[in-house]
Amino acid sequence: MHKALSLLVLLLMASVSETVQAKNHAYLSTISTPSEPSSLLKSWRMDSEDFTILHEQLNKDFSKFGRTKKMVKNIFYRSHQRIFRNYEQFSMAQDTFTSGAYDCVSGSLILAGLLEYFGFEFDIIETTYHVFLKVEVANEDVILEVTDPLTGFISDDPARKTYLAKYSYGENISSPWGILASIEGANTPAIFRKIDLQSLIGLQYFNQAINHYNKENELLAYQFSVSALKMYKAERIIGFSEFLKHNLLLSASR
Fold this sequence. Notes:
Layout: H1 2-16, H2 39-47, H3 49-65, H4 69-82, E1 86-87, H5 93-99, E2 101-102, H6 104-117, E3 121-127, E4 131-137, E5 140-144, E6 153-154, H7 157-168, H8 178-184, E7 192-195, H9 197-214, H10 218-231, H11 235-253
Parallel strand pairs: 1-2
Antiparallel strand pairs: 3-4, 3-7, 4-5, 5-6
Helix pairs in contact: 1-10, 1-11, 2-3, 3-4, 6-9, 9-10, 10-11
């Protein structure tokens, strides 16, 4: 009875809280919703000496190249040289600054923050199980595939079209996302849409919800799903959060 009551209290606190602040949980990033172009970067500079060095070098590059394709290329490759060290699924931006780990969400978030700071026009593209960036520069589109440190700067027209076609019609389900496949079943959506920076931060929390569910910690997974919903009320995040809540309430009633 005591266990069930405690669990219900935790669920209530998670669902009615206006926001789940990063400082209240060791796993949560300290990134806040950007309110001005440089707010993310100010936070990251405080967190990481390597990022500060990267940012200062890019400022020097910008004074030479301005808003050109060369500058976008420098943002991509200098970031890989300085802060993106090893791909690790379910990494958050804070992990990048502490260990160099990154994935498509955290890596794209950092690149997007830099692109925004330097005034580039870009889209954050969410697909069914992936995220990438599309930058418009000199009347051309450049794809930034952060998980490919060697050839992820895609400016060649045939290569760009091939890349976009790969994600326009959905992707195969990889094992860490199996829980979504079991929930969504045959109705798994073929997602291909533009999102903003706040939604991308929400996807970081959603990834953590998936990660902790896979580790059999449903309560922490639910808390992350609530955090994700504060930033991005996507259908699948709502569905997964409700699934976790149902499981926790069922467990508490036993």
